[in-house]
Amino acid sequence: MKTNLYKFMAGLCLTSSLAITTGCIEETFPTNGATEEQLTSSDMATSAMVWAMPAALNKIETISDSYHWDWGYGSIMHVRDVMTEDMAVISSGYDWYQSWEQNIYQGESYVYPQFIWNYYWQAVLTTNKLISAINPESASEAQMGYLAVAHAFRAFFYLDMARMFEFLPNDKTTGTNVEGLTVPIVDENTTEEDARNNPRVPRAEMAEFILADLDFAEQNIDNLSESVKTLPHLDVIYGLKARYYMWLEDYANAQKYARMAIDATSSTPMSETECLSTTNGFNNIDAWMWGSQMVTEDESVQTGILNWASWMSNETSFGYSSQAPFLMIGASLYNRLSDTDFRKKMWVAPEGSALEGQTQFLTSSVFGNFGGRLSEYASVKFRPAEGNCDDYTVGAATAYPLMRVEEMYFIEAEAAAQQGNGQAQTMLTDFMTQYRDPEYTTTATGDALIDEIVFQKRIELWGEGLTFFDVKRLNMSVTRGYEGTNFADASRFNTNGRPAWMNLCIVQTEKNNNAALIGFENPDPSNAYPVWE
User: Residue 306 carries which DSSP code?
Assistant: First the structure.
């Protein structure tokens, strides 16, 4: 049943601290049902388990139907983005992401980290079910391909969790006994008894576990016959390895696997026409290495509001973003970008600027042309499916990217620069002049070149949930308070290095079931920073 947006506006957008604690949430722990009865009587039966994994990306209401950020992996991508300085939001009361934007209610007893924790462990559960159900010694070729998919998805989820929950030093909180700790490991062999005394593992141990999954996937993914891009293939496995080695700051291997991903994929960098298309702009999975695709029948689409288009496309009449928590690029990021770079047209140009009037907008039967409605710096990167901004059964049945080949070019260039490779500047310049800005030049070297590569990557991957990882890895500051800022008053924080809020808290409900976590908590970063005035 389609949820009425206005019904929830008054009572649920600004809840009391009592309502947002996790006390009323059913306690869950990662291994609950980690294995299940064998379902491998046929390749078809196993296939049904495989499709549960891409379906998990768009699972809604993992906690309850009361929270309108509870719409799956795309929402967590959005959470990561609003934790940076790249995505600004000015709310009129509809913005459900204010706790992450304003660094409030981030401690272990609140529902916001609980959502992230619950989502990932339920997703891991779907992978463990399939892995536990297939015996590699007796599996068919098709089943070995499905098993490779499960290991790739599990590595994907654990790599996210490791980077999000790992405690790294920052300017506001101290975690002397948890520095470098990630999350517990729960695999297909973990029993309930094991799970009740399952400690957070250090980076090296988690890295070994993830690499084993990726190696297995790499060795067996050729058995997968399905070519759809909602499932990972060899190019994606290489891409995940490139991300993995960037996390470990093993830049030689990161460069190696980024190039292997580029060479293995059939995808090419999106053209200006593709990026700026009002009908297919960043909603077409065919343009990417890996993505999530929603269809009209999906529950998330049928809600009308708990889906990617609702929150990421400003040009809809059925979604949240169009109701005025417009998603904007941070003004400082936009202003640094050259006017000759076509990507700058993916945001509304400020009045009087060189690109004013050069962006094409959709027209709604409800709101009219969005060019007269959207604020300066507002995004038009993510278009509703088919450019349909009024019918949610069409417009929300869209795709969103999990991995694009463009990311691999930037990983390759940064990894080379991190090693002092003199070719890094050429790698960046070649990509930019060929695919983004024919007039691009840079004379940067050393740390300045690394900063320039990461800046261009932030522009390229804006809204795709990835900048968070670079900010945390590189100990970058987040600066939202400055003259001309377009961030809301309550989120104008300036940090000295990586923000404390990027060390996510493991939730109380997990400690209630896993004694090994008691005393090994990430400190609560809530309200740690003064607002810039």
Answer: S
